[in-house]
């Protein structure tokens, strides 16, 4: 079933009503709440996009991609098409038209395959250049100077030492020269 139906003569035009422009091949909103369009094209009203809450489909009104870019989704478009494929979410156009509703706007999606969770590894001495600073990821104000780096871990000003595994598990952050604060971890390859 198409998500639009033709308004009957005498139906009141309401906010959200649209008409189809066969010349431009797109849906466009009515010009004003009174339905004054000036071109005589037939108005159509969208059927509500609401879906049963337990079917897994999530309504979508446009914007930035709502899932991890590598997540595989099925999606429904304004024209009524349902696409189930093996395309990652990053390959789809999640934004809606800014002036006109377009038939290929995604109006709902279903997560088919979630993106894998990233695997994190502790840093090594190669990841901690001279001149780096550390701080615990807490309400701690300031940072701690790294006085020495070796294969076992870092040695902080004041005599405290931390292994690279400690930095990862305790959620410490590192400030490398020329960079912003980042978690003390790296992606597994």
3D architecture notes:
Residues 38-42 and 47-54 have low confidence and may be disordered. This protein folds into three domains: 1-47, no CATH class; 58-113, no CATH class; 120-187. It is built from one helix and 16 strands. The protein is 3% helix and 34% strand. 13% of the residues are buried. A six-stranded antiparallel beta sheet has the order 13-12-11-10-14-15. A hairpin with a 4-residue loop joins strand 12 and strand 13 (161-163). It is elongated. It has 189 residues and is mainly β.
Outline of the structure:
With 189 residues, the chain is mainly beta. Helices cover 3% and strands 34% of the residues.
Number of strands: 16
Largest sheet: 6 strands, antiparallel
Proportion in β-strands:
25-35%
Mean pLDDT: 75
Instruction: Strand order, main sheet: write it out.
Output: 13-12-11-10-14-15
What class would the helix/strand composition place it in? mainly beta
Overall 3D shape = elongated
Instruction: Using the CA coordinates, give the radius of gyration.
Output: 27 Å
Tally of helical segments: 1
Distance between the termini: 46 Å
Low-confidence stretches: 38-42, 47-54
SSE blueprint:
Layout: E1 4-6, E2 18-21, E3 26-29, E4 43-46, E5 58-59, E6 72-77, E7 82-88, E8 106-113, E9 120-121, E10 133-136, E11 144-149, E12 153-156, E13 161-163, H1 164-169, E14 172-175, E15 182-183, E16 186-187
Antiparallel strand pairs: 1-4, 2-3, 2-4, 5-8, 6-7, 6-8, 9-16, 10-11, 10-14, 11-12, 12-13, 14-15
